[in-house]
């Protein structure tokens, strides 16, 4: 006898289900269930994952996606399963109705909603009464069943008898279910912890809020038959039901909306016409033959697959953005096609960069084309609203992102459930670095004063690991749009997002991908905002009008600058890892930038492809190919696979995978790690390559690389589009550092660095930077006529004498003032007229509260009124309190200042002690996060010298291998997951920025200092390689208290950059650049790309520390020596 | 004025009571975080300071000895020191949380002068193990500032300004926000504000700043508030003729209670703890306290309470030559729930409370107890026993009834054994009911059974125990039992012990 389980909740029934959909699917097959129906609470968010699990692993059981409807009106839960495609549409619409009625994340349903949408749905009522059953039967004749469960509640048999009678009385069949919450009884602790999180209580206090027993797991058919011995018909009914459910998610074949273009019969004709018309603009000298051939090939393929409307949509969106002056750029395999270049979707000239088009779209896979379009992040909303307007909310929606429990949130919630105190939880979670899958270490536990071996701690750690990766809630994706011809809400339920005017569908990008549903990524990219602002400034102040495409190409000055790792603020290559890579890779051409962007990524690093590539590039190793077949694949990258396309291609060419197998392999890496089928792919790939006579070692590395790509794929097509932005931003930084710095500041928050570092860099490039001022600043930073920057270059950048064209100074905007609201700043600018002449004047004209003016005073923004910080504050404090009446004065104020003046002068003079320069600097840091006066370290020098601490710029003159003591304000701390616990610190003093490396043993010893010191002294060995200098820390000393000597709050200032992982555990919109796949987990990897721990191995040779270092770096540098 | 600052009050208190082997810190909650609230000298030398998060302190120095704060104990200690200081002057005020102010004007000569007094006081404090800092000045404010921030010494009147000028503004006992605000405009020491024009300062920072300065300088008088009992409601009566008889005491009690009644009613309060203080003519003081299970204000109820209390004392009331004063204080008051009159039930509840109070007063509150429902699936943990006076209302039974109804829980036995008793049973594997079992040597043939009701152990506890399958069974003679199988057959594979049987309760 067969049994199918129909009442199964996965962990997409948030905080109820305690197993992943994949786990349920695999377990169901394992224990011999004939089938499984997945129904989460008012949601179908998990159904695609189970569907994929079945498909990827060729499981033979039946699978029925459905939903468990829970009602707001007291109706018992009802499981709804669609019979067919129409039924699915009803279910999706029903859930949409409930979703849109509620706030984000909730769904409010009434029985009437179900009755109105019941057509095509098979219903299972989870307990009920005759009247309800009768009513349902009326709206859904022969499609209602009554569920019975045997859950060891004490009176199961009596209850079963009762249910049988009830079913008979109502004339509906009885169906057996086990109301499953997890795939195995050993998930009970996790289910209990989830219940605690849900009920906001602790495991000790939860009492009867927890389940009494662990019976709600997937039970084998024999067991179910035994339990339902008295009602075998209920077991039989599961098969009956399965037989009438014919719907499969594969039926959701995507119907792309018609794009009507006036004057054309069909989309293909329109696309062909538009392409060739625009091609003529792109190539005024005539379309090159190669491009023409490409166009023909691509258009044919597009016609064959009927993707023309999709391309027209992208074109239309881009056209709209352009018409609004919004900077944008497409990327992705399909975006880097000749067609897209001609349509203006990308700026990558296919004639200029030779790109692989294999992944463009392949007819045999029917894989949807992949085009992401980046827009200025500040104006993306305009584009989104345009799409909603054009297609309507019934046809357009944003994809979901599944927000999951990660290291920190996991320990936080589990810790709370176990009743750990806030500070213990804080200590445990802060020991988890970054936002990724970090786990609580035993050491961290010991440090908080708990015993890691204790039973309780072991439980906490184990449960934390288990809950990690569990979905927590759905959120809208940063910009993946789904557009459909038929109603979108009949494909997938739509819900409200937290943001007004946003609705999103329940499936994430992977789910949509898996079902072959087309989507367009409308992403926000901070760098595009920055570039547009910079280009506008250059236009306004230098009279040069550029677009991304007209920025002079291949300017050697730009490459010279990048080769020196002078890349702060430059898109993508500003991270420390990239900065160490630049002097090694020495980019000279555009394609080098493409490689630069792609090489510092988990894939190449895990596959250990970085060093072979660098050696070959430097001519230290002959360029050879594992086989002739692979030469075609690898020739562009000197025989070393660096791009995702190449890794996939190797699986196909060398290991004999079919293209779809290769793709499944890549997806399997990302999605199915927890189910554990990677092994079979690994064997297949390595055996395949061995059979084709490749070296085992090479095969293994290729596999590791794919593993890395699976985590975060970085294809050449994306790298190429990014490289263009790298070049554009580098060109601006090189030629117009003033405009670039102002634009960067105005586009904050973005990138890796805080304003302090951006300003410092601009000043080192000779740009004069002026403080924010009540009379001179706008909200954002602006340019004012200033000195020629080329004459003021820091010696570091001497070589740029002829390259820098800047003749303006940067005036910092009011936005740099901590805590000042934008609307207040706008008011100040608006009411300024010619100028303000006193504090009272500002107050009376703007009507801002004295508190806001105190903010401005604290930030020292009254310089143009000759008011010092204290004087300004004193004046601000008096406002509205010296017997003034706010309501009667503005009259006088506007007409005659004389009438106001006496009020002020009546006050006797107060002598305020002047502020010492050191204190001024500290206050600059407190209220502006930066100081234009001096660096705090300057005032500590005598103390520092007394401790034999050198200035950081001395490092450049010290021989590699020498021991040295330096110090600085900590600006950044990173601990890349791939660097085995190595911590990279950046510190700065008044002379220079210094890079510090802290090896794990040292870190563990000095952890409190690394994590908390704001000013630190470092003793260690200098290492220099290709102009990149590090100090390898042996000893750290917390000198934060020195800052307190300058001013009371000195010890509280911080100079931390945005990339600091301790303070900002990864959020930010860098997520937006991520191509495909499971972002958030990987964002971490992006930001933290280590300076490839193995890099350090090279200069270390011959140094006394080499053995230790090599031992640690070993897992990362299995390079052939 | 003498200001005495016991700067290590908490840690000294702990150090007096036990031997210390490691640097000591006292911890308390600050919001959600556990922070240090006091440190001793040794931990201060390690760089620990109040305000630091405990986790961070532990991270820095895992070896420190931590003790949770006990503000009450500190306050009690401070008060006893204050009482003890009465030997120097009758005017002693507590300067919470860790200081005392003594008005020693006109008293110092009794000790041979200020210096001698200070030596005597200091010597005694040192012997008792207290770290202290003290200063004498013409004003409370100046003495405080000197003791906390300056040179602990004796300052003559008129010297205050010289002494205060270099001290930080916080020495003026100003709120921290004011101190911070003044610091932002550069005014950080008392000297910085002393000769500034007054109006601008007051306009910006309020009158408090200069008032505190004036008080410290003696330009404005600051009253000393000697320590007083803090009972919210007090009524007392002196007698021309001392009284001695118990009846008289009770009559007086009732009369005083009537006085209190008006005060209590006016503020909508009732008494939860009442103290009767009887002052004997020879100076001995008797205190008799009584607690109530609900807020009281009816004089008769209060009188009744003391009837029971005095009954316990019997003759030990020991009036000696009689009492010349009586005081009735409400030590703990609580809002008095407005009572609804006359609609069923209420009367009974009040009766029950009255009974509980009387019994508790007579027998001791720990001996009058009540069953309280607990939120747990595990039967023996589903109830507990607490002193009846502590328990309010239905003690959670309504919640349990509600749950039982919703979960359709099978009935629980009337009588639960103190602990489950092992039995030998024959039953169907894996989860069938017992067919027959032997309990206390008697064999019971099961003729009817219902179950199982499966209740898992508490996995998070060391003593969680295995899962239990509970059955209600009836034997041939009509006796009904509640018994369970401990352990599941499906867990055998994971190394669990073979299931065994227990009897846990009997039905009526």
Describe the structure.
- The complex is a heterodimer of chains A (1121) and B (508).
- Chain A has 1121 residues and is an alpha/beta fold.
- Chain A has 46 helices and 22 strands.
- Chain A has a 7-stranded mixed β-sheet. A 7-stranded mixed β-sheet of chain A has the order 8-9-14-11-10-13-12, sandwiched between helices.
- In chain A, strand 2 (35-41), helix 2 and strand 3 form a beta-alpha-beta unit.
- Residues 340-346 of chain B have low confidence and may be disordered.
- In chain B, a hairpin with a 3-residue loop joins strand 5 and strand 6 (99-102).
- Chain B is an alpha+beta fold.
- Chains A and B meet through helix 6, helix 7, helix 16, helix 18 and helix 37 of A and strand 3, helix 3, helix 8, helix 10 and strand 16 of B.
Quick structural summary:
The complex is a heterodimer of chains A (1121) and B (508). With 1121 residues, chain A is of the alpha/beta class.
- Main sheet summary of chain B: 6 strands, antiparallel, barrel
Point out poorly predicted stretches of chain B: 340-346
Radius of gyration of chain A from the CA trace?
32 Å
Please give the alpha-carbon distance between the first and last residues of chain A: 62 Å
Q: Structural class per helix/strand content of chain B?
A: alpha+beta
Oligomer: heterodimer
Could you give the count of β-strands of chain B?
19
Write the layout of secondary structure elements.
The complex is a heterodimer of chains A (1121) and B (508).
Chain A: E1 4-8, H1 21-30, E2 35-41, H2 47-56, E3 62-69, E4 78-82, H3 85-101, H4 111-117, E5 121-125, H5 130-139, E6 144-149, H6 156-170, E7 174-177, H7 188-199, H8 221-227, H9 232-244, H10 267-282, H11 289-305, H12 308-323, E8 328-331, H13 338-343, E9 372-376, H14 380-391, E10 396-404, H15 407-417, H16 422-430, H17 442-447, H18 455-467, E11 471-483, E12 494-496, E13 503-508, H19 509-514, E14 519-525, H20 526-542, H21 556-563, H22 576-585, H23 590-599, H24 602-606, H25 610-617, H26 628-634, H27 644-653, H28 659-671, H29 678-691, H30 696-711, H31 716-735, H32 737-746, H33 755-764, E15 769-770, E16 782-785, E17 808-811, H34 822-830, H35 839-846, H36 850-858, H37 869-878, H38 889-895, H39 901-905, H40 917-928, H41 936-946, E18 963-974, E19 983-988, E20 993-998, H42 1000-1012, E21 1015-1025, E22 1028-1038, H43 1040-1046, H44 1079-1088, H45 1097-1100, H46 1106-1113
Parallel strand pairs in A: 1-2, 2-3, 5-6, 6-7, 9-14, 10-13, 15-17, 20-22
Antiparallel strand pairs in A: 3-4, 4-5, 8-9, 10-11, 11-14, 12-13, 16-17, 18-19, 18-21, 19-20, 21-22
Chain B: E1 2-5, H1 9-17, E2 24-30, E3 33-39, H2 41-45, H3 54-60, E4 65-68, H4 71-85, E5 92-95, E6 99-102, H5 114-128, E7 133-136, H6 140-148, H7 160-164, H8 176-184, H9 190-194, H10 198-205, H11 207-217, E8 233-243, H12 246-266, E9 269-280, E10 285-296, H13 299-313, E11 323-335, H14 346-363, E12 369-373, E13 383-387, H15 397-406, E14 415-427, E15 434-439, E16 442-455, E17 468-475, E18 480-486, E19 500-506
Helix pairs in contact in B: 6-11, 10-11, 12-13, 13-14
């Amino acid at each position: 006898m067969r049994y199918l389980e129909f009442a199964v909740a996965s962990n997409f029934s948030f905080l109820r289900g305690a197993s992943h959909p994949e786990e349920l699917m695999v377990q169901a097959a394992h224990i011999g269930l004939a089938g499984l129906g997945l129904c989460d609470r008012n949601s179908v968010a998990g159904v695609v994952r189970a569907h994929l699990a079945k498909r990827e692993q060729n499981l033979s059981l039946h699978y029925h996606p459905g939903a468990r409807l829970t009602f707001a009106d007291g109706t018992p839960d009802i499981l709804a399963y669609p019979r067919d495609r129409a039924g699915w549409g009803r279910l999706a619409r029903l859930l949409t109705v409930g979703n849109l009625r509620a706030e984000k994340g909730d769904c409010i349903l009434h029985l009437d909603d179900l009755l109105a949408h019941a057509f095509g749905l098979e219903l299972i009522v989870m307990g009920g009464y005759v009247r309800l059953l009768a009513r349902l039967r009326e709206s859904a004749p022969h499609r209602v069943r009554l569920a019975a469960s045997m859950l060891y509640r004490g009176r199961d048999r009596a209850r079963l008898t009762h249910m049988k009678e009830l079913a008979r009385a109502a004339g509906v069949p009885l169906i057996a279910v086990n109301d499953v919450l997890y795939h195995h009884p050993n998930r009970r602790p996790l289910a209990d912890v989830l219940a605690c999180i849900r009920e906001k209580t602790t495991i000790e206090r939860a009492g009867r809020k927890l389940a009494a027993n662990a019976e709600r797991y997937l039970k084998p058919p024999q067991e179910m038959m035994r339990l339902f011995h008295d009602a075998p018909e209920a077991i039989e009914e599961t098969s009956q039901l399965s037989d009438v459910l014919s719907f499969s998610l594969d039926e959701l074949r995507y119907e792309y909306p018609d794009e009507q273009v006036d004057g054309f019969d069909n989309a293909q004709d329109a696309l062909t016409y538009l392409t060739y018309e625009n091609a003529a603009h792109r190539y005024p000298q005539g379309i090159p033959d190669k491009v023409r051939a490409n166009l023909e090939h691509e258009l044919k393929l597009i016609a064959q697959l009927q993707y023309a409307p999709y391309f027209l949509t992208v074109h239309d969106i881009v056209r709209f953005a352009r018409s609004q002056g919004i900077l944008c750029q497409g990327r992705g395999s399909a975006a880097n096609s000749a067609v897209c270049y001609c349509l203006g979707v990308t700026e990558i000239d296919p004639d200029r960069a030779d790109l692989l088009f294999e992944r463009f779209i392949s007819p045999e896979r029917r894989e949807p084309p992949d085009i992401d379009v980046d827009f200025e992040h500040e104006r993306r909303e305009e584009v989104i609203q345009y799409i909603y307007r054009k297609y309507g909310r019934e046809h357009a929606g944003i994809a979901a992102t599944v927000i999951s429990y990660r290291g920190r949130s996991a320990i936080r919630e589990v810790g709370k459930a176990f009743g750990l105190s806030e500070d213990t939880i804080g200590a445990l979670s802060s020991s988890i670095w970054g936002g990724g899958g970090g786990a609580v270490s035993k050491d961290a536990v010991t440090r908080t004063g708990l015993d890691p071996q204790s039973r309780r701690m072991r439980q906490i750690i184990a449960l934390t690991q288990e809950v990690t990766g569990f979905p927590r809630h759905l959120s809208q994706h940063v910009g993946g749009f789904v557009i459909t011809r038929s109603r979108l809400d009949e494909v997938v339920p739509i819900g409200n997002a937290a943001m007004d005017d946003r609705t999103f569908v329940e499936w994430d990008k992977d789910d949509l991908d898996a079902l072959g549903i087309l989507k367009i990524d409308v992403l926000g990219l901070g760098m595009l905002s920055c570039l547009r602002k910079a280009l506008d400034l250059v236009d306004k102040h230098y009279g040069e009008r550029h677009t991304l495409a007209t920025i002079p190409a291949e300017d050697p000055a730009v490459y010279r600058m990048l080769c020196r790792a002078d890349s702060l603020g430059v898109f993508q290559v500003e991270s420390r890892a990239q900065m160490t890579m630049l002097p090694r890779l020495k980019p000279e051409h555009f394609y080098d930038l493409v490689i630069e962007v792609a090489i510092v990524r988990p894939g190449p690093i895990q596959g250990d492809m970085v060093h072979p590539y660098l050696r070959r590039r430097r001519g230290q190793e002959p360029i050879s190919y594992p086989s002739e077949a692979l030469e075609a694949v690898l020739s562009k990258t000197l025989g070393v696979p660096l791009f995702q396309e190449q890794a996939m291609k190797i699986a196909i060419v060398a290991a004999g995978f079919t293209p779809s197998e290769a793709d499944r392999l890549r997806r399997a890496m990302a999605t199915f790690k927890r189910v554990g089928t990677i092994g079979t792919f690994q064997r297949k790939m390595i055996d395949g390559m061995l059979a084709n006579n490749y070296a085992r070692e090479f095969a293994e590395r290729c596999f590791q690389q794919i593993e890395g790509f699976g985590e975060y794929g970085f294809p050449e097509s994306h790298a190429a589009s990014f490289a263009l932005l790298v070049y554009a931003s580098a060109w601006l930084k090189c030629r117009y550092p003033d405009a670039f710095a102002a634009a960067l500041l105005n586009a904050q928050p973005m990138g890796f660095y805080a304003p302090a570092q951006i300003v410092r860099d601009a000043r080192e490039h000779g740009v004069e930077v002026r403080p924010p001022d009540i009379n001179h600043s706008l909200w954002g930073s602006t340019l004012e006529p200033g000195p020629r920057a080329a004459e003021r270059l820091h010696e570091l950048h001497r070589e740029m004498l002829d390259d820098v064209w800047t003749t303006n100074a940067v005036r910092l905007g009011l936005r740099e003032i901590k805590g000042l609201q934008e609307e207040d700043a706008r008011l100040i600018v608006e009411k300024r007229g010619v100028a303000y002449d006193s504090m009272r004047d500002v107050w009376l004209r703007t009507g801002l509260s004295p508190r806001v003016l105190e903010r401005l005073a604290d930030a020292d923004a009254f310089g143009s009124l000759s008011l010092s910080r204290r004087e300004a504050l004193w004046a601000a404090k008096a406002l509205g309190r010296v017997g003034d009446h706010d309501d009667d004065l503005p009259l006088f104020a506007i007409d005659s200042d004389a009438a106001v003046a006496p009020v002020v002068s009546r006050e006797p003079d107060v002598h305020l002690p002047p502020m010492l320069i050191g204190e001024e600097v500290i206050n600059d840091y407190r209220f502006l996060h930066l100081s234009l006066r001096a660096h705090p370290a300057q005032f500590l020098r005598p103390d520092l010298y007394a401790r034999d601490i050198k200035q950081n710029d001395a490092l450049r003159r010290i021989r590699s291998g020498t021991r040295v003591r330096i110090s600085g304000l900590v600006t950044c701390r990173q601990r890349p997951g791939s660097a085995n616990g190595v911590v990279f610190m950046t510190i700065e003093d008044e002379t220079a920025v210094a890079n510090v490396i802290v090896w794990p043993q040292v870190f563990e010893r000095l952890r409190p200092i690394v994590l908390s010191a704001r000013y630190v002294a470092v003793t260690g060995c200098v290492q220099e390689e290709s102009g990149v200098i590090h100090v390898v820390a042996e000893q750290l000393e917390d000198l934060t208290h020195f800052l307190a000597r300058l001013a009371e709050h000195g010890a509280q200032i911080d100079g931390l950059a945005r990339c600091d992982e301790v303070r900002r555990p990864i959020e930010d919109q860098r997520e937006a650049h991520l191509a495909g796949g499971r972002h958030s987990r990987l964002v971490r990897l992006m930001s933290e790309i280590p300076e490839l721990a193995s890099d350090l191995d090279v200069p270390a040779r011959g140094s006394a520390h080499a053995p230790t270092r090599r031992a640690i770096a070993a897992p990362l540098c299995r390079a052939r020596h | 004025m003498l200001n005495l600052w016991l700067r290590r009050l908490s840690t000294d208190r702990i150090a007096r009571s036990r031997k210390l082997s490691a640097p000591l810190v006292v911890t308390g909650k600050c919001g959600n975080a556990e922070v240090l609230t006091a440190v001793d000298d040794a931990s201060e030398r390690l760089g620990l300071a109040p305000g630091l998060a405990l986790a961070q302190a532990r991270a820095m120095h895992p070896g420190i000895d931590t003790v949770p704060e006990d503000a009450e104990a500190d306050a009690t200690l401070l008060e006893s020191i204050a009482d003890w200081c009465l030997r120097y002057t009758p005017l002693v005020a507590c300067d919470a949380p860790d200081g005392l102010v003594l008005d020693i004007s006109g008293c110092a000569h009794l000790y041979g002068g200020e210096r001698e007094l200070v030596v005597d006081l200091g010597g005694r404090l040192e012997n008792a193990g207290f770290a202290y800092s003290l200063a004498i000045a013409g004003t409370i404010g100046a003495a405080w500032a000197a003791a906390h921030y300056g040179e602990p010494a004796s300052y003559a009147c008129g010297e205050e300004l010289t002494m205060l000028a270099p001290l930080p503004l916080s020495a003026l006992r100003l709120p921290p926000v004011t101190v911070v605000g003044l610091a932002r405009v550069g005014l950080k020491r008392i000297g910085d504000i002393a000769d500034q024009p007054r109006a601008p300062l007051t306009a910006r920072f309020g009158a408090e700043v200069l008032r505190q300065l004036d008080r410290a300088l003696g330009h404005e008088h600051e009253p000393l508030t000697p320590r007083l009992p803090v009972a919210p409601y007090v009524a007392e009566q002196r007698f021309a003729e001392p009284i001695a008889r118990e009846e008289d005491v009770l009559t007086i009690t009732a009369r005083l209670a009537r006085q209190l009644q008006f005060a209590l009613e006016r503020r909508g309060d009732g008494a939860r703890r009442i103290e009767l203080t009887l002052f004997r003519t020879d100076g001995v003081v008797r205190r008799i306290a009584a607690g109530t299970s609900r807020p009281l204000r009816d004089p008769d109820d209060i009188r009744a309470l003391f009837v029971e209390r005095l009954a316990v004392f019997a003759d030990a009331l020991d009036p000696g030559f009689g009492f010349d004063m009586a005081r009735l204080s409400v030590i703990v008051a609580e809002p008095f729930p407005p009572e609804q009159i006359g609609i069923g039930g209420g009367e009974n509840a009040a009766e029950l409370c009255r009974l509980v109070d009387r019994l508790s007063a007579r027998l001791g509150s720990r001996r009058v107890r009540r069953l309280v429902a607990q939120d747990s699936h595990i039967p023996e943990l589903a109830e507990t026993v607490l002193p009846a006076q502590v328990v309010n209302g239905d003690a959670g039974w309504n919640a349990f009834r509600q749950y039982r109804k919703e979960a359709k829980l099978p009935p629980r036995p009337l009588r639960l054994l103190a602990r489950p008793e092992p039995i030998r049973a024959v039953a169907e594997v894996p989860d069938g009911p017992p067919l027959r079992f032997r309990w206390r040597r008697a064999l019971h043939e099961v003729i009817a059974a219902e179950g199982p009701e499966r209740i898992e152990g508490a996995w998070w506890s060391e003593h969680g125990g295995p899962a239990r399958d509970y059955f209600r069974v009836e034997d041939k003679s009509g006796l009904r039992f509640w018994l369970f199988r401990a352990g599941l057959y499906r867990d055998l594979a994971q190394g669990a012990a073979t299931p065994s049987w227990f009897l846990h309760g009997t039905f009526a």
